[in-house]
Amino acid sequence: MEKQPLYEGKAKRIYSTDVADELLVYYKDDATAFNGLKKGTIDSKGVLNNKITTFFFDLLGKNGIPHHFIKRVSEREQLVKSLKILPVEVVVRNIAAGSLAKRIGWEEGRKLPAPIVEMYYKNDELGDPLINQHHIKILELATEEQVKTLEEYAFKINEILTNYLREKKIELIDFKLEFGVHNGQVLLGDEISPDTCRFWDSETGEKLDKDRFRRDLGNVEDAYKEILFRLTGEKA
Ligand code: C5P
Q1: CATH 3.30.470.20-classified regions of the chain
Q2: Ligand 1 centre and the CA of 76: distance in Å?
Q3: Over 80: is that where the pLDDT of 106 sits?
Q4: What are the EC numbers (predicted)?
């Protein structure tokens, strides 16, 4: 009988392993948007995001960001440390796009004077609302010290990724991070991929991320493949 996952999310399944504090993550091809209202699949997305996430976690680890990633173990699977996930989604933005462009009335593509960090309450029923440190405190989602750490890591990760991607002719517009606690330490968790970031070609402005799926722009799989190729030189 096939092993039952501990948890099944929109894009991944999580399985226990023989090691108490290690989990196996399986990357699916399923894609959702607008809090699950739009559903579809992107061919090979699981394979591509598993590789792209592996690349980014290696890069961040080498640059001093503590994270959950242990190793990629197959095309669609990776081994990670088990985390108690903090129910806060941390978004970093360099250029106005998506929900920020809508909220503050800026056109997409307008550069922010400096990067900003936003926090969202990770709660599907509520549609992941935007919150601040005061909401986090009354909802007891994280301690004040943890919130400081999240912000500090978020800005540092942005610097590392932005600098790296610029050389690959990719503009990092914005991205979402999730963190969790392992043995009392805050670690970066989840994934970093075209599902969770906005990547634009620096020269043409072409979108190379999940907005191609969200906005029905076509060539979704090719965009994910292009990101993997620019990062690793691998032709998927
Ligand atoms: O939709 P919005 O503009 O707020 O998204 C900001 C960034 O966070 C985008 O890169 C998007 O891909 C990512 N995001 C995510 N998961 C969510 C919400 C946003 O990966 N639930």
Answers
A1: 84-220
A2: 23
A3: yes
A4: 6.3.2.6
